[in-house]
Specification:
The protein is mainly α. It has one domain. It has 8 helices and no strands. The two termini are about 35 Å apart.
Amino acid sequence: MGSLKGMKWQSMLTAALFVIMGIVLIIYPETTAETICYVVGISGVVIGIFTVLAYMFRDVEKNYYRNDFIVGMMEILLGAFVLYKADLIIELIPCVLGMLVVFSGISKLQNCINLRQMNCGNGLVFFIMAVVNMLWGILLVIDPFDDTELLFILIGVGLLISGITDTFATLYMAKKMRDYMKVTEAMTKGVREIECIEESKEK
């Protein structure tokens, strides 16, 4: 349960950063690519640090099959690289932010699959959100716009939508996971009790 809580707050932090970046770009579309580059770099470092800390304070047995430490270190290194080589990254900023929107959609697609595996509905809402996210992100990556200011506004809208829907997805999935784990634990307990009764009868 602690592992679930850690992942929940990690996802909420990422969603909050998406919302903040989205609002900034919508209100200030003339924001320079250099400023955006620094914001993305700092965000990557912050998220990476949080991921590493969540890994370090999680129970050992819950870390065994997880790669959060590696993921966190990669996020920190990528964030630091963006800050250090800002001049090389600036031209890729629209593409990078567009890919963030695409990845947000992919995470919702995974949520859709998880819901089906847990028999918690068909995940249609998540599927629709995933498709919208991915199509929007792909549009930003392709960048068919001649107006740079318009592009940054649309990137801002994409990040804002991603952050809001990610928050909803995180809270919803956390609740479903808690319910699923409770049902699983109850079933496991019931099976053990039946096995104990059968063993007692045999004796």
